[in-house]
């Protein structure tokens, strides 16, 4: 073998790399989409009427290997209801200085209140802003949702709510869509959709 070539073999590797396509991404100006099931920051979800899915059970906190979640449960009352059922998450915090984005908390949640988004931009320069509160983690109110506290809108009791709530919500959405298109066609007046008296 030509041993005298050994010292220059490494330069051949460098030389080959010079003609390969560069994969550098100009972050943060340019952002590539993540994989669909990427584990990003968490989200606390809502039912279709806007009530919170979290029942303050703390199972996510117990499942967390990094001790990153802090939950304090509270009791719903008829006058002040944040979730269907007896309890809701009164205080909810995730410490992103500790979280390793493993997803075990999501697996432990019995109501699918906790899921993970694809958002990975979590860096900051102080401890306080990396402890996310319930208000930051809650999903935004979508069309047709009402900010809690309010009574259960999807059925007259809890069983109704859990068993038939999504069906009621879907039926309401279809009704809204139908009325919306009838309003735009001029078949009915807009007050029929909004429920406002003339
Ligand atoms: S993703 Fe893992 S580390 Fe982060 S809060 Fe959930 S269980 Fe804890
Ligand atoms: S997010 Fe889920 S597991 Fe955690 S306290 Fe709320 S309901 Fe329980």
Descriptive key words:
disordered C terminus; alpha+beta; three-stranded antiparallel β-sheet; 6 helices; Alpha-Beta Plaits; 198 residues; two-stranded antiparallel sheet; binds iron/sulfur cluster; elongated; 29% helix
If you had to describe this structure to a student in words, what would you say it looks like?
With 198 residues, the chain is an alpha+beta fold. It has a domain of 104 residues: Alpha-Beta Plaits, CATH 3.30.70. The protein contains 6 helices and 5 strands. The chain has a 3-stranded antiparallel sheet. A two-stranded antiparallel sheet has the order 1-4. The radius of gyration is 26 Å and the shape is elongated. The relative contact order is 0.16. The site of one iron/sulfur cluster has 14 residues, from helix 2. One iron/sulfur cluster binds next to helix 3.
In total, how many beta strands? 5
The rounded distance between the terminal residues' Cα atoms is 96 Å
Question: What's the helical proportion of residues?
Answer: 25-40%
Largest sheet, order of strands side by side?
Answer: 2-3-5
Layout: helices, strands, pairs:
Layout (H helix, E strand, L loop, with lengths): L5 H12 L24 E3 L14 H5 L5 E7 L11 E9 L8 H5 L5 E3 L14 E3 H4 L20 H28 L5 H4 L4
Antiparallel strand pairs: 1-4, 2-3, 3-5
Bound molecules: iron/sulfur cluster (2 copies).
């Amino acid at each position: 073998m030509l041993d005298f070539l050994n010292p220059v073999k490494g330069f051949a590797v460098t030389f080959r790399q010079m003609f390969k396509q560069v994969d550098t991404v100009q972050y943060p100006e340019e952002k590539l989409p993540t994989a669909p099931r990427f584990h990003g920051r968490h989200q606390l979800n809502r039912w279709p009427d806007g009530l919170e899915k979290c029942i303050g059970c703390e199972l996510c906190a117990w499942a967390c290997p990094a001790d990153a979640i802090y939950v304090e449960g509270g009791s719903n009352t008829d006058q002040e209801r944040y979730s269907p059922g007896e309890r809701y998450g009164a205080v909810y915090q995730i410490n992103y200085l500790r979280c390793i984005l493993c997803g075990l908390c999501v697996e432990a949640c019995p109501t699918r209140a906790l899921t993970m988004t694809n958002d990975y931009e979590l860096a900051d320069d102080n401890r306080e802003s990396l402890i996310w509160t319930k208000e930051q983690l809650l999903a935004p109110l979508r069309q047709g949702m009402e900010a809690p506290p309010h009574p259960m809108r999807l059925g007259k009791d809890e069983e109704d709510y859990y068993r038939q709530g999504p069906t009621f919500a879907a039926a309401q959405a279809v009704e809204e869509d139908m009325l919306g298109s009838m309003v735009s066609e001029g078949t009915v007046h807009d007050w029929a959709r909004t429920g406002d008296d003339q």
